[in-house]
Design goal:
two-stranded parallel sheet, about 50% helix, 7 strands, five-stranded mixed sheet, 10 helices, 2 domains, alpha/beta, Rossmann fold
Length: about 250
């Protein structure tokens, strides 16, 4: 695993429980935490690339992905190997991986559509999106996907472009509304309706994610800008309707 932050640790827990051997590297030194989890921490990314890895999972933030890939000493890579990314946007990592990786490195772009909150009681029935971007080693790829299949995920094979278009209309909107509610500092009241309780929960869940993640969802999904405009337009329409009623 390259990038051993919150989400990577969350995935690692299940993978370790299922008997996989994990090595991790990250900007931050996670030696002790990794040791406690049963993961070997390698501070030098070059040393990690030289190990006999079946899969290299990139779990860094969306914003740092390009820099992290650009600074990897890829000439040290043991080939063949399968590169997997788990970023919440998909065209961006696909394009970079295709650009920088040697031909003999396979590429699987994935988005587990869940995290430490929604997946805390297991991954059953949670969505797992993937695209086999460049796969020659079919067995390694299938074995990797099986990790999620065996946990009961709903496996969704689709193009990275289709993912980004759909995610802008669903996940990105959720985060924008959550962040907006956060700016409004909404709090639970003694007379909450069920609907309002849902909004307070949305605010809390959104704030548990890093701001980098939210920023990345906007910056590296070409469909996000239009969705932000759609939200503004919709709010304007709602306002106009109310004000019109006021005048009548
Ligand atoms: N959280 C979720 O529910 C979720 C779900 C699906 C997919 N994902 C994806 O998983 C990835 C990780 O998400 P996350 O929730 O853990 O939080 P995040 O804030 O998106 O990413 C944190 C990770 O990025 C690394 N990082 C950040 N800036 C860096 C830099 N300048 N140079 C090198 N490394 C840098 C961090 O390393 P250090 O820890 O070493 O500082 C950490 O490993 C993201 O791509 C996200 O889109 C997240």
């Amino acid at each position: 695993m390259v990038g051993f932050g919150t989400f990577a640790q969350f995935l690692a827990k299940t993978m370790i429980n299922r008997g996989h051997t994990l090595r991790a590297t990250s900007r931050t030194d996670y030696t002790q935490l990794s040791k406690d989890m049963g993961v070997s921490f390698v501070s030098d990314v070059g040393a990690l690339l030289q190990e006999d890895n079946d899969v290299i999972m990139i779990c860094t933030s969306i914003l740092s992905f390009s820099t992290v890939l650009g600074s990897m000493p890829l000439h040290l890579l043991r080939l063949p190997v399968l590169f997997v990314d788990v970023l919440s946007v998909k065209e961006h990592p696909r394009d970079i991986l295709l650009k920088v990786l040697p031909e003999r490195a396979d590429i699987l772009c994935t988005h587990p559509m869940f995290g430490p909150e929604s997946g805390k009681y297991g991954w059953k029935d949670l969505n797992f999106m993937y695209e086999r971007v460049r796969i020659r080693g079919k067995e390694t790829c299938s074995s990797f996907l099986q990790i999620f299949e065996m946990e009961g995920c709903r496996m969704l094979e689709m193009s990275c472009t289709n993912h980004d278009s759909l995610a802008a209309k669903s996940q990105f909107i959720t985060h924008v509304i959550g962040r907006t509610l956060s700016e409004m500092e909404i709090e639970s009241t003694p007379i909450d309706t069920k609907g309002f309780e849902t909004l307070v929960q949305l605010r809390k869940n959104t704030e548990k994610n890093s701001y980098d993640l939210f920023n990345g969802l906007y910056k590296h999904n070409k469909f996000a800008k239009q969705e932000l405009k759609n939200i503004e337009l919709a709010l304007e329409k709602v306002k106009q309707k109310l004000q019109k009623n006021d005048e009548e």
